[in-house]
Amino acid sequence: MHKRNYFPHIDGLRGIAVLLVLLFHLDITVLKGGFIGVDVFFVISGYLISSILIPKIDQKDFSFKEFYFRRIKRLMPSMLFVVILTLLMAYFVYPLFLFEKTLKSSTATVLSFSNVYFFLESGYFDSSSYIKPLLHTWSLSVEEQFYLIWPFLLFFTLKIKKTVHRVLVLSSFAVISFFFSEYYLTINSSAAFFLTPFRVFEFLIGTLLFWTNKFEFKSYAKESLSLIGITGLIFLASFYDNKVLFPGINALLPCLFSAILIHNTGQTKYVSRIYNNQLIRWLGRISYSLYLIHWPFVVFYKHLYGPNLNPKDQIILFFSAIVVGFIIYKCIETPFRVTKRKESKIIILIFTTMVLILVTNYCLLHFESFFFKNTTTKTYGLKQIEEGKNLRFQLLSDTINDLNLKNTKHTEQVLILGDSHAPDALNFLKLAYPNYDYRMLSEGGCPPMVSDDLKLINNHPPEMKDKCYVMMDKIYRNNFLSKYEYIVINVMFGWYKPENLVAFVKEIKKKTKAKIIVFGNYIVLKRDMPEITGSGETITNKDIESFGLYDNELKIKSKGLYQFISKKELLSNGNNLKDCVLFTAQNAPMSYDSNHLSFEFSKTISDSLRIKKINIFKKK
Question: What is the mean pLDDT of residues 270-296?
Answer without folding.
Answer: 93
